[in-house]
Structure formats: C-alpha cells, structure tokens
Write a structure and sequence with these properties.
This protein has about 160 residues and is α+β, with helices and mostly antiparallel strands. It contains 4 helices and 3 strands, in the order E-E-E-H-H-H-H. It has one domain: Roll (Ubiquitin Conjugating Enzyme), CATH 3.10.110.10. It has a 3-stranded antiparallel beta sheet with strand order 1-2-3. Helix 2 crosses helix 3.
C-alpha cells in the first residue's frame, strides 16, 4: 500500500486542500489498474463516502480505459482533473450529482466547506479565514504544489504502513 497526496486545483472548490489517497498496486500491475481511494473526505459526485473513485482510468476495458501504458502518476493527474471537472453523468453519489447539475452554487459551497473542514492544513500558524491575505500564503501554496507534483511524478517505490 502506498500513500500519495494531491492538491486541490486553483479556482475549484477544492483549492487550498491537500487530499490523501491510498493506492494499492495489484500483483498483476501494470496489466491491472491500481486500486485508489481518498482517505481525506471529499464532497464530489464521483467519489463516495468511503473514498472510492468512479473513473474510467481505474477500470479495465470494456467498461474502463486502463491500459498497461498508463502509470500511477498519470492516473493521479486524471483524478486531479476529475476533481476540477466532475462527471455528473457517471456518479457514485446521485444526490451530489443532481446538486452539481441543477444547483451548482450550493454544490460549490458544500464542496468548499468540506475542503475547509477536512483537507486544509490547520497547523500553518494562520487562521484559515485570513490566510489568503498573508504574504507567505501564496509562496507556501506554490511550495506545497511543487512538492505534490514531485510526489505525483515518481512511481511509488516504498510501502507505507498505516
């Protein structure tokens, strides 16, 4: 089992959030897709309450799009894109999907609230409501994004126990 983190995208309800994912690499990898799930709670139509992710890249054909040429870094990038652009037509959470389709403002408010409650680091020494006005906020966000991009770029080489 491996643990990776992805950063919520800029100008999304997940901005400022750091989301932890559990990755299990099957014995037949790369001929089978990795099993991934969010450990950090997230309000999203394609991610359920247990963190399971509905994404074609995590499924074998004919219903899925997994190919041995894909790698974990590519799948993490596609999950980050799914966070920015949910697919309400293939939901795991029908109620959130309806909200996304028919009341996007409410969806965005709830997703931001969940991000603040579950994914924003509270130990940065700044109150959450004021951090965008602090000079170090943008720099620390860039550092975190660069670090996360580095983690995403490398294939998991170590097993991490929880």
């Amino acid at each position: 089992m491996h643990i990776k983190e992805i950063v919520g995208g800029t100008e999304t309800p997940y901005e400022g959030g750091l989301f932890t994912l559990e990755i299990k690499v099957p014995e037949r990898y790369p001929f089978e897709p990795p099993k991934m799930r969010f450990l950090t709670p997230i309000y999203h139509p394609n991610i359920d309450n247990s963190g399971r992710i509905c994404h074609d890249a995590l499924k074998l054909p004919p219903k899925g799009a997994w190919r041995p040429s894909l790698n974990i870094s590519t799948v993490l990038s596609s999950i980050q894109l799914l966070m920015a652009e949910p697919n309400p037509d293939d939901p795991l959470m029908a109620d959130i999907s309806s909200e996304f389709k028919y009341n996007k403002q409410l969806f965005t408010e709830k997703a931001r609230k969940w991000t603040q409650e579950h994914a924003v680091q509270k130990n940065m020494g700044v109150e959450e409501g004021n951090k965008e006005n602090t000079p170090g906020h943008k720099a620390s966000s860039r550092k975190r994004e660069a670090f996360t991009a580095h983690l995403e770029a490398e294939e998991p080489t170590k097993k991490t126990s929880v």
